[in-house]
């Protein structure tokens, strides 16, 4: 499912993907909390600051016993990496991330060893 995000990173509007399984969770959340201005609101119905969002992520990671360092950027990087590993064209990933240059997207996404192992040598077809 494609969703429109207003004033995303860099104050840009963009489209991104929303898992259909998350849609039900968001509906339940919306019915319970009835946000007015932002889907996820902080104190006094205000927008979460990036530092508040980072604290929420760190607390969640601590709760599940995650030992690795995690940031909001880690989630963005992981999203891009999983798209790439699942065969999504780099140009679509560039659009979803809101990058102006494909070079930025190439730096942003690393190629995993698992993906490299899936590459078939052309000489195997001879």
Overview of this protein structure:
The chain is 49% helix and 6% strand. It is mostly helical and 126 residues long. It folds into two domains: 48 residues, no CATH class; 61 residues, no CATH class. A two-stranded antiparallel ribbon has the order 1-2. The mean pLDDT is 87.
The mean pLDDT is 87
Give the helix/strand class: mainly alpha
Q: Beta-sheet strand percentage?
A: 5-15%
User: How far is the first residue's CA from the last residue's CA?
Assistant: 41 Å
Strand order of the largest sheet: 1-2
The secondary-structure element order is EEHHHHHH
Rg computed from alpha carbons, rounded to a whole number of angstroms: 18 Å
Question: Helix segment count?
Answer: 6
General form: elongated
Low-confidence stretches: none
Number of domains: 2
Q: Mind summarizing the main beta sheet?
A: 2 strands, antiparallel
The number of distinct β-strands equals 2
Helix content, binned percent = 40-55%
Q: Tags for this entry?
A:
elongated; 126 residues; two-stranded antiparallel ribbon; 49% helix; single chain; mainly alpha
Q: How is the topology of this model organized?
A:
Layout: E1 2-5, E2 14-17, H1 20-33, H2 50-63, H3 72-85, H4 90-97, H5 102-108, H6 113-117
Helix pairs in contact: 4-5
Give a concise summary.
This protein is mainly alpha-helical and about 130 residues long.
């Amino acid at each position: 499912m494609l969703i429109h995000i207003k004033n995303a990173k860099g104050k840009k509007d963009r489209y991104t993907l929303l898992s259909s399984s998350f849609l039900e969770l968001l509906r339940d959340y919306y019915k319970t909390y009835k946000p007015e201005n932002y889907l996820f609101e902080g104190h006094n119905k205000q927008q979460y600051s990036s530092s508040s969002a980072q604290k929420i992520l760190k607390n969640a990671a601590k709760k599940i016993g995650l030992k690795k360092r995690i940031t909001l950027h880690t989630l963005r990087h992981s999203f891009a990496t999983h798209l790439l590993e699942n065969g999504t064209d780099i140009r679509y990933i560039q659009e979803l991330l809101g990058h102006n240059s494909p070079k930025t997207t190439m730096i942003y996404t690393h190629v995993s060893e698992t993906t490299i192992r899936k590459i078939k040598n052309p000489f195997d077809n001879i």
